[in-house]
Q: What sequence folds into this?
């Protein structure tokens, strides 16, 4: 068996990533050797594989759902938007260029060949590959150079299931409109619909589903209910409301709650670093874009960014630089991760991302940053607070530490900590030790829960996605598509057909 399926969506954030992960987990439970695939991903949330390749964080999450090791072939093309209308192009895990949108179009034919080779390679080594589209398959202005949606489906002869977000409203119109805008060749690959994020009694939808079948000749393959509290690896900033509107995951073990304010810089990247804090009982995590939103925080976090110097300028424009400095001056904890760590330095010399040369940092850590042309991609292992710590690095900035105390690969001075390591807080023992130190510095009666396991919590969320597919999708129909491809002879639906 060497089956495959493409999960597309009527819009960005329709639920393609979680549906792909759910199908992967459902198949894994059936004893199927399955892998995820996304030909082209635009995301600032990325991950480093064991062999040092950078891929989208969502594909790493989907690989975990599939029980497979993440690899570059699962996301052969990754676009990382910068601060000047340009994006870094990462191909097979390594950065190859900085391009604008029009420049990138010229590269697409060659990138499609690379994507098809990677998909063929994955199919040769797995029973099934579940592919995820990007944006919408009906972006007709981009169709002639598409490599992630119908361009991939036609070239690789894939059946396509389209996911629509009913919580936004207009799901039936968006499904019909998606199909009607496609060419006859593309429509032949559209096999059915998945209604996602439904609240209420699914029987109320039946008249709409019946009419959808009548006008598109494609059936609904399931109505998936809204799931809350998943906290899965978000792909882009559209997901931030769900990522951070969490409150705490349970009551504190002590009498106090720890309040964490995360500065939401414009080009935020790898905000998955905050997940481990947000799932800790008694820790309240919030976004902050104004100085007053740091006022009652016990811990301020400066997260990663794709554009350190540009986002540091934004920080100063908002007055957040002074608020962070005042927080530290009061002896209250500040944590910088990757780009946030670079912002805390004395100086930043950047001839690479911003090409601004040397600029002043916030000066809260005895560190100087110099940007290298070569990106660091690594999976370091170290020790902190007597605990083993695994992390991953994705950065151009190289830090020279001139004082303070060592802290992972970075430093700790006063109440300020910094590191280039993403994922460090996912290590349970290290996270608990750090939170105990934050509580001691702030005088809070906060005690980390002794049995919180971030890896187990993530597995439980992936299992919920597997349950979502098993219980609410037409799995027999999915099997038929995976094994047999798109149904033959489906009618072409011209625009305006319902009238």
A:
């Amino acid at each position: 068996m060497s089956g495959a399926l493409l999960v597309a969506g009527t819009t960005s954030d329709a639920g393609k990533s979680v549906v792909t992960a759910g199908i992967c987990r459902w198949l894994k439970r059936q004893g199927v050797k399955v892998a995820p695939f996304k030909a082209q991903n635009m995301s600032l949330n990325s991950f480093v594989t064991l062999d040092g390749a950078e891929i989208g964080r969502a594909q790493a999450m989907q690989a975990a759902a599939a029980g497979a090791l993440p690899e570059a072939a699962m996301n052969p093309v990754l676009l990382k938007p910068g601060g000047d209308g340009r994006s870094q192009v990462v191909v097979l895990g390594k950065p190859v260029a900085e391009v604008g949108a029009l420049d990138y179009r010229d590269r697409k034919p060659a990138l499609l060949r690379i994507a098809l080779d990677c998909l063929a390679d994955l199919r040769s080594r797995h029973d099934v590959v579940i592919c995820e589209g990007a944006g919408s398959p009906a972006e007709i202005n981009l169709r002639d150079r598409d490599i992630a949606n119908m361009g991939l489906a036609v070239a690789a002869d894939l059946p396509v299931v389209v996911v629509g977000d009913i919580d936004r409203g207009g799901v039936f119109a968006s499904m019909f409109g998606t199909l009607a805008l496609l060419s006859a060749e593309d429509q032949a690959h559209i096999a059915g619909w998945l209604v996602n994020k439904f609240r209420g009694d699914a029987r109320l939808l039946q008249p709409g589903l019946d009419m959808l079948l009548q006008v598109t000749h494609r059936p609904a393959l399931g109505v998936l209910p809204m799931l809350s509290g998943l906290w899965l690896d978000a792909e882009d900033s559209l997901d931030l409301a769900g990522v951070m509107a969490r409150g705490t995951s349970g009551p504190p073990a002590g009498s106090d709650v720890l309040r964490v304010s995360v500065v939401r810089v414009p080009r935020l990247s790898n905000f998955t670093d905050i997940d481990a804090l947000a799932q800790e009982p008694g820790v309240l995590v919030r976004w902050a874009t104004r100085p007053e939103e740091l006022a009652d925080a016990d811990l301020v976090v400066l997260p990663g960014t794709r554009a350190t110097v540009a986002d540091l300028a934004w920080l100063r424009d908002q007055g957040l630089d002074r608020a962070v400095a005042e927080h530290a001056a009061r002896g209250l904890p500040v944590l910088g991760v990757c780009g946030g760590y670079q912002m805390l330095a004395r100086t930043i010399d950047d001839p690479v991302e911003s090409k601004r040369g040397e600029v002043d940092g916030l000066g809260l850590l005895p560190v100087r940053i110099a940007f290298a042309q070569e990106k660091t991609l690594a999976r370091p292992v170290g020790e902190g607070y007597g605990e083993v710590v695994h992390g991953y690095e994705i950065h151009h900035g190289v830090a020279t530490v001139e004082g303070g105390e060592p802290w992972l690969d970075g430093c700790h001075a006063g109440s300020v900590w910094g590191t280039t390591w993403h994922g460090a807080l996912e290590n349970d023992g290290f996270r608990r030790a750090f939170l105990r130190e934050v509580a001691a510095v702030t005088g809070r009666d906060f005690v980390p829960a002794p049995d919180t396991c971030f890896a187990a919590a993530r597995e439980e969320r992936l299992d919920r996605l597997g349950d979502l597919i098993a219980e609410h999708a037409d799995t027999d129909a999915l099997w038929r598509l995976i094994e047999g491809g798109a149904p033959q002879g489906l009618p072409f639906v011209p625009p305006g057909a319902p009238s």
Summary: Residues 254-449 form a domain with the Rossmann fold fold (CATH 3.40.50.880). The two ends are 42 Å apart (CA to CA). The chain has a mean pLDDT of 91.
